[in-house]
């Protein structure tokens, strides 16, 4: 939610204009707060502007009748950047506890954009739900980056060049990377094809991989059957889950990893056995090439060690938000 | 089997939360220490004729406090009651373990929470270590900038 302020994306939008290719047809990026200035008077915006602590006490207010829990500062419900209260179902009470922990453990000075990962994600979930209610003003929809259909379409693009669908050549790392990729990706791809075929009338779903030994360097695109099935899967998700899928996909650069994360936090009995996994394996699959690079060239300070924690905290944030008791 | 895993998960959770809370606790106690010392000294100055045995004793104990090295901060988490009630009454992991249902997912999730807390804390530590200027106040930054070119900020 503070992304635009930190990265200055809104200011440095590229002015390059070339003819769009198929893979750049709708290329404005996901997960970035595109608003130049967001002046809704909310607590989250105030914090992102002043980065100073302005409250004394964080608390949870439980509304037993409606089954909701509200996160409050000094007795007032915290609002998301778009002005919706951070109120979650009481079936997610562990999430509420962790949200409170996150706010009560902020240092008083120099609060950074990365200090509130859970709140950012939950705020995105809530804002997405609210902006997709009928009658929402187009201005608010633009602020969150488009309707849920726009977000689904953009997420679909990650399936074309999914981290788990791109194989490195045998000549790299004495073939070790390729062997590890085959071992870890192939069963997941198989399972994923099985999983997606549930969302398609066509039972023969085939994911197009990009193999550097055969295809060389080129773009990749999934067939319409696969795209339709993936779209149907995303339609079946609640908006809350869609926001979590988005977070996971953007972090791992892999649509498959996003689905794995979400489905492993739900009822796993429905899942093909090859897709049953844990967060650590998902992270390993998404960063396999980096792991081999570290092994060969050594760990670079201020890069690999930070990135390692970064991807873990992001994936586990998504996992915590996805979990329902 | 499940009981030992439950215990392990619960201990891990408490330990992760303790570590996660510690930096902000130290800061809070430091602030409290400062305000208490100022307050007590002020009240001493207000009534210079009185004896201040009690105030002196309090002042002493506040001055002795060193939040950065205080082990007692490691003994409790701020919200243990809430956490316990969430685990017992909402997630009902005790019941579920007793009935032998769904327990794997709960443990898995407990470890995910632990990993989140640990990695978030370590990430912030690393960012602070590699960007030492981030934590400085504006005045401190100006002072250091002036020092670089051999000047001092007028007091």
UniProtKB/TrEMBL annotation, chain A:
Cell inner membrane keyword on record: no
Any single GO BP term: mitochondrial proton-transporting ATP synthase complex assembly
Q: Which GO terms describe its cellular component?
A: mitochondrion
Q: Which cellular compartments is it found in?
A: Mitochondrion
Q: Which UniProt keywords apply?
A: Chaperone, Mitochondrion, Transit peptide
What Pfam families does its record include? ATP12
Q: What is its main location?
A: mitochondrion
The record, for SUPFAM superfamilies, names: ATP12-like
Please give the InterPro entries that the UniProt record associates with this protein. ATP12_ATP_synth-F1-assembly, ATP12_ATP_synth-F1-assembly_N, ATP12_ortho_dom_sf
Give the family from UniProt: Belongs to the ATP12 family.
Q: By what name is this protein known? A: ATP12-like protein
Organism, by scientific name, is Saccharomyces kudriavzevii (strain ATCC MYA-4449 / AS 2.2408 / CBS 8840 / NBRC 1802 / NCYC 2889)
Taxonomy of the source species: Eukaryota, Fungi, Dikarya, Ascomycota, Saccharomycotina
Its encoding gene is what?
YJL180C
Automatic annotation (TrEMBL), chain B:
**Pfam families this protein is in?**
Complex1_LYR_2 (PF13233)
Instruction: Mention any one GO cellular component term assigned to this protein in its UniProt record.
Output: mitochondrial matrix
Biological-process GO terms, alphabetical: mitochondrial proton-transporting ATP synthase complex assembly
- Identify the domain of life: Eukaryota
Q: What is this protein called?
A: FMC1-like protein
Q: What sections of the sequence does the record tag as coiled-coil?
A: none
List the source organism: Saccharomyces kudriavzevii (strain ATCC MYA-4449 / AS 2.2408 / CBS 8840 / NBRC 1802 / NCYC 2889) (Yeast)
InterPro entries named among the record's database cross-references:
Fmc1
């Amino acid at each position: 939610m503070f992304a635009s302020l930190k990265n200055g994306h809104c200011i440095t939008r590229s002015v390059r204009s070339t003819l769009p290719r198929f893979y750049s047809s709708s290329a404005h990026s996901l997960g970035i707060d595109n608003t130049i200035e967001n002046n809704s008077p909310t607590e989250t915006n105030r914090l992102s502007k002043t980065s100073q602590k302005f409250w004394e006490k964080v608390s949870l207010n439980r509304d037993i009748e409606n089954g909701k829990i509200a996160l409050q500062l000094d007795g007032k419900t915290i609002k998301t950047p778009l002005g919706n209260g951070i109120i979650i179902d009481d079936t997610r009470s562990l999430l509420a506890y962790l949200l409170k922990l996150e706010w009560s453990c902020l240092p008083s000075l120099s609060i950074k954009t990365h200090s509130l990962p859970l709140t950012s994600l939950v705020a995105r979930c809530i804002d997405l739900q609210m902006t997709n209610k009928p009658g929402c003003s187009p201005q608010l929809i633009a602020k969150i980056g488009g309707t849920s259909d726009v977000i689904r379409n953009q997420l679909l693009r990650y399936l074309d060049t999914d981290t788990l669908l791109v194989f490195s050549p045998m000549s790299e790392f004495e073939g070790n990377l390729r062997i590890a990729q085959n071992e870890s990706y192939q069963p997941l791809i198989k399972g994923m094809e099985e999983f997606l075929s549930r969302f398609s009338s066509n039972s023969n779903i085939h994911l197009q991989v990009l193999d550097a030994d055969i295809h060389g360097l080129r773009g990749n695109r999934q067939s319409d059957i696969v795209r339709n099935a993936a779209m149907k899967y995303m339609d079946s998700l609640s908006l809350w889950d869609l926001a979590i899928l988005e977070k996971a996909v953007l972090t791992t650069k892999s649509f498959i990893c996003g689905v794995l994360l979400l489905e492993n936090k739900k009822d796993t009995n429905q899942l093909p056995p090859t897709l049953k996994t844990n967060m650590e394996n998902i992270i390993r699959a998404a960063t396999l090439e980096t792991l081999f690079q570290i092994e060969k060239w050594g760990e670079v300070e201020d890069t690999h060690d930070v990135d390692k924690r970064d991807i873990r905290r992001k994936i586990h944030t998504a996992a915590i938000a996805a979990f329902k008791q | 089997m499940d009981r030992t895993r439950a215990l392990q998960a619960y201990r891990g959770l408490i330990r992760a939360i303790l570590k996660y809370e510690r930096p902000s606790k130290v800061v809070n106690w430091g602030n409290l220490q400062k305000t208490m010392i100022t307050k007590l000294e002020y009240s001493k100055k207000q009534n210079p004729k009185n004896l201040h045995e009690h105030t002196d004793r309090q002042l002493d104990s506040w001055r002795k406090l060193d939040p950065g090295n205080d082990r007692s901060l490691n003994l409790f988490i701020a919200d243990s009651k809430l956490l316990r009630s969430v685990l017992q009454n909402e997630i009902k992991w005790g019941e579920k373990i007793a009935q032998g249902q769904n327990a794997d997912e709960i443990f898995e999730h407990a470890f995910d929470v632990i990993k989140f807390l640990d990695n978030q804390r370590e990430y912030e530590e690393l960012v602070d270590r590699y960007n030492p200027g981030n934590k400085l106040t504006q005045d401190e930054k100006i002072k250091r900038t002036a020092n670089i070119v051999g000047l001092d900020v007028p007091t």
